[in-house]
Amino acid sequence: MLKVDLNGHWKMQEVGTSEWLDVQVPGSVMNDLLQYGKIEDPFYRDNEKIGLEIAAKDYEYTRKFSVDEEFLLQDKILLICEGLDTLAEVFVNEQPVEKTNNMHRIYEMDVKSFLRKGENEITVKFNSPTQYIQALQEEDPLAGVGDAVAGYPYLRKAHYMFGWDWGPQIPDMGIWRNISIQAWSSAKLDDVYMTQVHSENEVRLDVRVKVERLSEADNLQLTVSLTSPEGQVEVKTVPVSDVQEIITFNVENPELWWPNGYGKQPLYQVEVSVLDGNNSKLDTKEYNIGLRTIEVKSVPDEFGRSFEFYVNGLSIFGMGANYIPEDNLLARNSVEKTERLLRDSVEANFNMVRIWGGGHYPEDYFYDLCDRLGLIVWQDFMFACSVYKLTDEFLDTVKKEVADNVKRLRHHASLGIWCGNNETEEGWVHWGWPQDPMRKTDYIKLFEYIIPEMMKELDPETFYWPSSPTSGGGFDQPRDPNRGDVHYWEVWHGLKPFTEYRKYFFRFCSEFGFQSFPSLKTVKTFTIPEDRNIFSRVMETHQKNAGANGKILFYLSENFLYPKDFDSLLYTSQLLQAEAIKYGVEHWRRNRGRCMGSLYWQLNDCWPVASWSSIDSFGRWKALHYFAKKFYAPILLSIEEEGKTASIHVTNDSLEDIQGRIEWKLRTNTSEILKEGTFEAKVGKLSAEKCIELSFKDVLSDENMRNTYLEAVLIMDEEVHSNAVVLFVKPKHFEFVDPQFELDVQEEQDQFILSVQTNGGLAKYVELDLEDADCKFSDNYFDLSKGDTKTITIMKDSLSETLSLQELTKKLSVRSIYNTY
Ligand code: BMA
């Protein structure tokens, strides 16, 4: 296989102008214009409008490259475009090669007849995506979300680029993935597909290989090597016949791959090569695989219909969040940024991420990271919240998109489920779309017939689920709380109180969420001081969910006192969000067994915005992410308070039965102990127990409820494993006292150690922060009683800049809810 890499230096211009810019490919139009200062930062203040101005025009990219005689002599020469966004016309030496209409596809174009020896030229012209969809939408309108440019379901381009209820309307375009020309003769690897059969202490790995070969090629050999995590290599060689070859390895004592929290992530390497008669390699492909089974079981049971992930036969409680694209300008994505995001997910004890259907299929490195980190991937196909019209042309491109991506991703250890779409069945049933029977039939055809039929061929090993949420399909009550997965939005969109979560025992809650503002540091990046009021035009531009700033204020009025300033409002909004999600997750984890998963909406942001994310677009952890680290801990103590009673629960998602001591204290606002108790608790592995029910009817009056709280800790091997504090009234009615913080900072070689104490009484939601610098605290937004010392570490490598002990101490601030009013 010979290759001419076309990544790198290209020229770009707006069609019809004459100023060519020197740019990098892969890249994007808006990123290029931004680099040259031709446009302002579209994320700053209300610059978002630039997005649609740019997207209304056409752009072209061009470069020269050369090929030699040997290259031209090859039998097959293919231009391979791994990602063209989206309406591209490709020319080689001014001759039209192909037109594209799907950014999710990998295009292979035969360019042999267009090339000449020496210098050649390639030009890729991108036509305006907005003009295209507007024309089709005018002819025959398709329903979709109101926050996006109408007509977006017509184009196989990531929907969120056209706007979403957290995303700006910035539909960038360009050559967003690798581009190259590859040439070959005699043979190349066409398709490699691996399956595993697990039995006791053995895994049979079948590597199926299809070789594409030209008629005259014979004496071809196929070699496949399997390298264990320890580096032991087994090689098998077979002659290539005309049919698919199956090379089998029997791996004894396999090292199994497990999701985070359940074991390690050993990876085996598979290398497949086709060799010619002289034993020289014609083509090679490499894969990292994990030996594991992942099944999803959704079967009728006493509650309705289950929804449960099994890994290596073990039933796993899915814990994680929904992932959206990381930027509107795809050129700014990087393996480093994604690695940080996914490592932060693992730090918060995730074992799963759901790739939501309104974005794009992530890069290979995303899945490599999930393989290495133990994150099960819930993979939506890229359809969301919209009506699709299944014309022949649309169906043709969708089928190719499905095949391209399934073949690209099916070998990953982390791949747990394929899901047809996001909320499209629910849209049909609940969102008041015109009930056009043709389009409804299109839905069933695509998601319940065509794609599942393709999956039987392409990846029968991975479970396919037609939509999220669904009870199984066929427009049969997709919101049924007792069947399949559920997106629950009555808290937030329905303005119901957090307590509403406790009314449901969803089988798997794949979406639920609550918005907050990003921190002041992030807000400062897109505002000037005059903008820093949540109802200002600029703040509203960075809030895409209609009326949502009012919603935050509504929930605020239910829970907290009116905050004294803008920054306190941002902080309290994050506390509301963290409390809401914790309320739901703890409840579902207490009901482990009936409910088997919670994925909150949403992990990340694609720009600085008020949203449901737990990590903002700068990678800053909101209060929710610190909360997630605690509420997703494998061993979790939680308190379910109700009036003047409280029960203490322990959820044990570890693989060991546990035994520990639970200590509880009923305390006043100044942390005096009114009542206390200690007891031993035993909780079996992979289960949840209500350990004790406490009634405080004798001690709690309507008056002292306002200054009394319950605290409980789970101690195992003399170490606190999990702790909880509950109030018996809303925080706004609790009589907090001035905590009078005392802070001490010590420096060690790799870390700073902070000790926090309060001299007044209970400090709730204690937030540590650094002025004009970032770092990760080992814990944050915690509760602290008088008399206790909280020790927090800051690893030095998590600091955004090098700081001395003195500088860090100067930048360090601490506050709690008491300090917001
Ligand atoms: C769900 C998601 C997204 C949306 C979010 C918040 O519907 O699937 O479409 O952004 O809720 O409204």
From TrEMBL:
<dbReference type="GO" id="GO:0005576">
    <property type="term" value="C:extracellular region"/>
</dbReference>
<dbReference type="InterPro" id="IPR036156">
    <property type="entry name" value="Beta-gal/glucu_dom_sf"/>
</dbReference>
<feature type="domain" description="Mannosidase Ig/CBM-like">
    <location>
        <begin position="645"/>
        <end position="733"/>
    </location>
</feature>
<comment type="pathway">
    <text>Glycan metabolism; N-glycan degradation.</text>
</comment>
<protein>
    <recommendedName>
        <fullName>Beta-mannosidase B</fullName>
        <ecNumber>3.2.1.25</ecNumber>
    </recommendedName>
</protein>
<dbReference type="InterPro" id="IPR054593">
    <property type="entry name" value="Beta-mannosidase-like_N2"/>
</dbReference>
<feature type="domain" description="Glycoside hydrolase family 2 immunoglobulin-like beta-sandwich">
    <location>
        <begin position="188"/>
        <end position="292"/>
    </location>
</feature>
<dbReference type="Pfam" id="PF22666">
    <property type="entry name" value="Glyco_hydro_2_N2"/>
</dbReference>
<keyword id="KW-0964">Secreted</keyword>
<comment type="similarity">
    <text>Belongs to the glycosyl hydrolase 2 family. Beta-mannosidase B subfamily.</text>
</comment>
<dbReference type="Pfam" id="PF00703">
    <property type="entry name" value="Glyco_hydro_2"/>
</dbReference>
<dbReference type="InterPro" id="IPR017853">
    <property type="entry name" value="GH"/>
</dbReference>
<dbReference type="Pfam" id="PF17753">
    <property type="entry name" value="Ig_mannosidase"/>
</dbReference>
<dbReference type="InterPro" id="IPR008979">
    <property type="entry name" value="Galactose-bd-like_sf"/>
</dbReference>
<keyword id="KW-0326">Glycosidase</keyword>
<dbReference type="GO" id="GO:0004567">
    <property type="term" value="F:beta-mannosidase activity"/>
</dbReference>
<comment type="subunit">
    <text>Homodimer.</text>
</comment>
<dbReference type="Pfam" id="PF17786">
    <property type="entry name" value="Mannosidase_ig"/>
</dbReference>
<dbReference type="InterPro" id="IPR013783">
    <property type="entry name" value="Ig-like_fold"/>
</dbReference>
<dbReference type="InterPro" id="IPR006102">
    <property type="entry name" value="Ig-like_GH2"/>
</dbReference>
<dbReference type="GO" id="GO:0006516">
    <property type="term" value="P:glycoprotein catabolic process"/>
</dbReference>
<dbReference type="InterPro" id="IPR041447">
    <property type="entry name" value="Mannosidase_ig"/>
</dbReference>
<feature type="domain" description="Beta-mannosidase-like galactose-binding">
    <location>
        <begin position="10"/>
        <end position="177"/>
    </location>
</feature>
<keyword id="KW-0325">Glycoprotein</keyword>
<feature type="domain" description="Beta-mannosidase Ig-fold">
    <location>
        <begin position="737"/>
        <end position="820"/>
    </location>
</feature>
<dbReference type="InterPro" id="IPR041625">
    <property type="entry name" value="Beta-mannosidase_Ig"/>
</dbReference>
<dbReference type="GO" id="GO:0005975">
    <property type="term" value="P:carbohydrate metabolic process"/>
</dbReference>
<dbReference type="InterPro" id="IPR050887">
    <property type="entry name" value="Beta-mannosidase_GH2"/>
</dbReference>
<keyword id="KW-0378">Hydrolase</keyword>
